[in-house]
Write a structure and sequence with these properties.
- By secondary structure, the chain is mostly beta strands.
- It has a 5-stranded mixed β-sheet, covered by helices on one side.
- A hairpin with a 5-residue loop joins strand 24 and strand 25.
- It is globular, with a radius of gyration of 21 Å.
Length: 397
């Protein structure tokens, strides 16, 4: 697998976007931008498939649903959930089925929805069921349900009662507490209905009480509303809108930012001494055909609103993964009709140290050591694919 990476230009206009992001983050601490560093010799990561799960053509009887989530522990074992299964499937580091953790239900260790996963210290498993407003803690190794944490108090109205914060994801667990992200959604008729949605994080204690209500909050993918002559309000998500990312590293460092530009804040939760890493990139334009496709199936009144908010360029990146060395793996946006996506690997000092390419249909979810695991669809079927990572020198920039 060879790499085809667009070269970045120093002095890119996206540095202005990065500056704007730092102003947004400024209200949440005092990020310090990393010093510019000279390019380092380029390395290409070759991702070779080790095994896959969910491949019917290979005689695999596993059938995944949508919204697959994968976590990987220190032994390389995989914990997999999907929207159709209210339990956690456990696989060995070579892809063998080891068993199931939890089941559908309302009792201890049971789930009423597909749980969000986080592997903490010594592979303690935390599973958040947003439908039941609780987090279940499972012991390492034998995965016995140790405790249940009620997080119902984490949902709340915004200060002016014009928005509602609903818990979205389990970001992670630190010595300071449990970090959950929330979607701050505008309530129609109580706002001008034209502002962006927002996403933020809260800090909870081990009993589920809110310690810090809004640690950070960033603009998230924009939703627009349009009314017709009868007063009926409809809603639509703007294609190519910008998303907010909150990711916790193994060292309990929080990585956060929007994909308007590659500008990611890094720091300890609760510590104001955060810094921001920026990486210049070439913006990918949205073609006229893509713009038409983004609105053509909408009603006329919604098309008018969508045209107002449809950006000129695509987000800088589509995925942000932190490996166990604290490096960021970012999937860059692609040109129209691309079948592969470029990934860059950025170290904690802000240097782009490696690149790789994967099919656009596959998105990595967890990276540790020489193993990366991604999810996607092949021939219309959801699959989980584990890759072995090897490095090849390419001669530098």
């Amino acid at each position: 697998m060879r790499t085809h990476v667009r070269r970045t230009r120093r002095g890119s206009p996206d540095l202005l976007c990065a500056a704007v992001l730092m102003l947004v983050l400024g209200g949440c601490g005092s990020p310090q931008q990393s010093d510019p560093l000279l390019p380092v010799p380029s390395v290409e990561y070759i991702l070779t498939e080790a095994f896959r799960i969910g491949d019917e053509a290979a005689g695999d009887t596993v059938l995944f649903g949508s919204n697959i989530q994968v976590a990987q522990d220190s032994r390389g074992q995989l914990y997999i959930t999907d929207r159709q299964t209210h339990s956690i499937r456990l696989y060995s580091g070579s892809g063998e089925r080891l068993g199931t953790i939890g089941r559908s239900g309302q009792g201890p260790g049971e789930f009423s929805d597909s749980p969000e996963l986080y592997l903490g210290t010594q592979d303690t498993l935390y599973a958040m069921d947003t439908n039941s407003d609780r987090i279940t803690v499972f012991s390492p190794g034998d995965h016995v349900a140790l405790e249940t944490i009620d997080i119902s108090n984490a949902a709340s109205f915004g200060e002016d009662l014009s928005s509602f914060q609903t818990v979205a994801d389990l970001v992670g667990v630190t010595p300071e507490g449990i970090i959950v992200s929330y979607d701050n959604s505008a309530i129609p008729f109580l706002t001008d209905m034209s502002g962006p949605e927002r996403k933020g994080i809260k800090l909870l204690d081990r009993n589920g009480a809110v310690l810090a209500d809004t640690l950070y909050e960033l603009p998230d993918r924009k939703v627009v509303y349009a009314g017709n002559a009868s007063g009926v309000i409809s809603m639509s998500v703007v294609s190519f809108g910008r998303d907010a990312f909150f990711v916790l590293s193994r060292e309990h460092l929080l990585y956060y930012g929007t994909n308007e530009a590659i500008a990611v804040g890094i720091g300890k939760v609760g510590d104001p001494a955060h810094r921001t890493i920026t990486v210049p990139h070439d913006p990918v334009p949205i073609t006229a055909e893509e713009r038409r496709g983004a609105i053509e199936d909408r009603r006329a009144n919604m098309q008018v609103e969508l045209r107002k908010h449809l950006p000129e360029t695509k987000p800088a990146y589509q995925a942000l993964i932190i490996d166990n060395a604290g490096r960021m793996w970012l999937q860059l946006s692609t040109l129209q009709d691309s079948t592969d996506a470029d990934w860059i690997v950025v170290d904690p000092e802000g240097r782009t140290v490696a690149t790789t390419t994967l099919p656009l249909s596959i998105r990595l979810q967890t990276i540790a050591g020489d193993r990366a695991v991604g999810v996607g669809e092949e021939d219309g079927a959801p699959v989980v694919i584990a890759y072995a990572i090897t490095a090849t020198e390419t001669g530098g920039y």
